[in-house]
Amino acid sequence: MYFFFICCYLSCSFLFSFFLFLSILNFLLSLFYFLLFLFFPFLYYFILSSYSLHLHYSLFTFLSSFIYHPLFLPLYIFYISLLFFFPYFPHLLYSSFFSHPFSTLLF
Fold first, then answer.
1. Residues 6 or more apart from 13 whose CB is under 8 A from it?
2. Which of 9, 16, 4, 18 is nearest to 91 (CA)?
3. CB atoms within 10 A of CB 57
4. What 3-state DSSP class applies to 54?
5. Which of 48, 92, 97, 105 has the most beta carbons within 10 angstroms of its beta carbon?
6. Longest dimension (CA), the chain
7. Alpha-carbon gap, residue 97 to 103, rounded angstroms
8. Spatial contact of 36 and 43, defined as CB atoms under 8 Å apart
9. 40-92 pLDDT, tens per residue?
């Protein structure tokens, strides 16, 4: 049971951080294109005419849109509830691991 909570916690935290990273990256890329459009419109149209960069932008927009997908909502709720009910859960996990008598064999 404890192992199940550890796996769920780690997978949810990885998914949450991964999609948060994608959304931040998408925001920065959109901001870059917006500023480019404001100050250098000709360069903006030249860059967007390139197929690879346009595909790159579309790929990040597509990937970061998954952060709002309803399928990930239970994972976010579970992750937030773990943080709320067990605020010291990672600390307990690491301390229980390193306080184990055989943990010194790892170093």
1. 79
2. 9
3. 17
4. helix
5. 48
6. 66
7. 7
8. yes
9. 777 766 666 665 555 555 555 555 555 555 566 666 666 666 666 655 555 55
CA 32, CA 17: separation in Å to the nearest integer?
22
Q: Which amino acid is at 54?
A: H
pLDDT grade, residue 106 (50/70/90)?
A: very low
φ/ψ of 70, rounded to 5, equals -65, -20
Q: In the numeric block, which tokens belong to residue 9?
A: 């916690």
Sign of the CA dihedral with 23 first, then 70, 58, and 30 last: negative
Tokens describing residue 46: 């030249």
Which amino acid is it at 107? F
Cβ(33)–Cβ(57) below 8 Å: yes
